[in-house]
Amino acid sequence: MDGPELWLVVGVGVLALLGIIVALWDLLRSEVRQLPRWVWALIIVLVSFPLGVILYLVLGRVPRGAPGADTSAEAGPGQTLPTSDGPHTVDVASIAEVAAATTAASAPVAVTGPAGDAVIVTSSVRKVYGDAVALAGVDLVVPRGATYGLIGPNGAGKTTMLAILSGLRRPTSGQIDLGVERRRIASLVDTPLFEPWLTAREVVDLARHLVAADLPGERVDVALGEVGLADAADRRTGGFSRGMLQRLGLAACLVGDPEVLLLDEPSSALDPAGRREVLNLIGQLSHTKTVVLSTHILGDVQQVCDVVGVIDHGRLRYQGPIQDLLARTSSAYAVHVRPTAADLLGELTTRPWVEAVEELAPGRLRLITSNAPTAEREVPRLVADQGLSLVSFYPATDLETALLELTR
Known about the structure:
With 408 residues, the protein is α/β, with parallel strands linked by helices. It has helices spanning 4-29, 37-46, 51-60, 95-100, 158-166, 200-211, 218-226, 242-254, 272-285, 298-304, 322-328, 342-348, 372-385, 399-407; strands at 110-111, 118-129, 132-138, 141-143, 147-151, 173-178, 185-188, 260-264, 290-294, 307-312, 315-321, 331-338, 354-361, 364-369, 389-395. The strands form three sheets. The protein has a seven-stranded mixed sheet, sandwiched between helices. Strands 2, 3, 4 and 6 form a four-stranded antiparallel sheet that branches. The chain is elongated.
């Protein structure tokens, strides 16, 4: 074979190769159906061209804009992400106005606090995986400069929400308004992993080159020092504990000097001393950055967060100041008497203002009341009537109690 026939064969081969490459590129960017993505990749490559490509386009590719297809893209500051229902602009100037626009299909969302600038606003954000609804119309409002705690049971949708905010996943529908450029948002996943042959300094320096190459190299050592890894800067990450990897991930986030930090369980793998260091660091960062914190450790949220959002089964049940959340739930009190609380426990169970009471330990009761003023008057009197000594009696409402009441 020579001459024109050879060139014809070469031309057809080049066109086939380009067609396969374009189809694979489209496969990476599109939603698929019927078969997993990797199976469609094998069909495109192994089935004779153009049959494999045609099968993918006709049977496997979900057309953009079709129901269930991801329709959003990245948004810059002040921009909105389109939805399949058409454009919807959210005013980021007023937190109260945006938060009040809760979708009627979702459960009521409580939003309190003064209006002000918001750095992240979502409107009716949904994320669906097949038949599973991960997020069902979430209206999130994150004030600029706040430390926002995103809490809820396992599988509530917290990690999905953070992934959408960071751009790692796209919502099925809904709007996202960002008050900063996407590159000024840093995200820390739950269990960060790095190439084991890289040193901590190399990992953070690589992050610097990716997100802020114009910053000086000294930022690497500063970021490592902020998370307590200055002494381990030249150690290979393959020998790091999970807690050290968590700190290294936080350093990689901080090196680019982001305006917004999205942290998914940042202290879950740390020992008590390490947790305290990370919480102190988050507290310091809150003076200059906006932090969105997702965690199962409710004590951490109560210590460092000033605003919380409670997600349950993909719906936002509450959003607002943490103190307002504690105040709106049932009043809980801790009662400590001597010598024993058996008789007092029996008396309390007969009172109409007592919702629940249990003995946690000999002489120690936990009381939940629907009428706090009455409880504060009656409990000391009942203790005296029983001839007991009242050691302590104080409010014991905590975030765990509030969360359980919202999600039960």
